Backbone:
């Protein structure tokens, strides 16, 4: 349980990558300012987080199950937090989807929006009443540079992040008068399983009905240059965790 003076921080998608690192960084804060509720949809994946948290596990870091695509799971998770009191919500969970629109089913596109857009909306709706009542809170959303700029064959992922940017920009204005902050973080490339999965998707990618010029541009220009950018400028989850820590301080 949080000590008085400690901020309760709930983070989504902590089984790997950025979410895991944010959870560990905040739980190991030298001044012990945070009580971290690290959530993941499948607690069987907790080992990496528990190992990285070390002594902080069970002290400044606890675990709860949470699938941001399920109303019931979101409700249950927040009900499990003492007094439903969350000072800082970090919406990190997200999925990517790479490929030409021609080869992606509407069902797959909806899954991306369910996670990246409605997942965030669900969480905000659930924590907002208590934050408004207490006239205090901070909501952080992990967007992406692709929430600001479209990228070839990332149409659906980009659209989901653009939608979230629009939603949050609008919400921020309404939340301001309740003293609730809403911050967006827009990372460029970060070395996580997200990147690995993207590269696997590229290897399997088919281009039915896509014109030859677009395919050539993707394979010969876009892909090699993005791999170069990843190698030269790719950040680590730790970089994003430190940035997040600064944002909430
Ligand atoms: P990872 O794939 O390593 O992590 C994604 C996390 O989201 C996993 O813990 C995953 O859980 C979780 N997740 C997916 N669906 C759900 C769900 N329905 N409910 C709860 N959790 C879920 O990727 P990253 O760490 O790189 O990505 C984290 C965030 O950062 C995402 O929002 C992504 O869009 C954003 N981002 C990433 C960039 C990058 O280059 N890596 C760049 C810019 C932004 P599970 O293990 O169960 O699948």
Residues:
């Amino acid at each position: 349980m949080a000590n008085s003076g400690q901020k309760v921080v709930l983070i989504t998608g902590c089984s790997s990558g950025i979410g895991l690192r944010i959870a560990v960084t905040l739980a190991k804060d030298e001044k012990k300012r945070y009580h971290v509720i690290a959530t993941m949809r499948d607690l069987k994946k907790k080992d990496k987080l528990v190992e990285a948290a070390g002594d902080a596990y069970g002290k400044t870091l606890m675990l709860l199950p949470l699938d941001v695509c399920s109303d019931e799971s979101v409700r249950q998770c927040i009900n499990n937090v003492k007094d439903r009191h969350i000072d800082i919500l970090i919406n990190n969970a997200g999925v990517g989807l790479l490929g030409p629109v021609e080869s992606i089913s509407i069902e797959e596109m909806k899954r991306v929006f369910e996670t990246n857009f409605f997942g965030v909306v669900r969480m905000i709706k659930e924590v907002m009443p208590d934050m408004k009542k207490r006239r205090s809170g901070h909501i952080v959303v992990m967007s992406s540079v692709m929430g600001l700029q479209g990228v070839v064959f990332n149409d659906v992922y980009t659209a989901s992040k653009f939608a979230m940017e629009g939603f949050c920009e609008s919400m921020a204005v309404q939340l301001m008068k309740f003293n609730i902050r809403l911050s967006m973080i827009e990372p460029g490339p970060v070395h996580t399983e997200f990147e690995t999965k993207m590269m696997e998707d590229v290897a399997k990618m088919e281009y039915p009905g896509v014109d030859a010029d677009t395919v050539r541009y993707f394979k010969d220009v876009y892909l090699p240059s993005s791999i170069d950018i990843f190698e030269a400028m790719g950040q680590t989850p730790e970089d994003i965790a430190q940035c997040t820590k600064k944002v909430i301080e």
Observations:
- The chain has one domain: 7-248.
- The chain is about 50% helix and 15% strand.
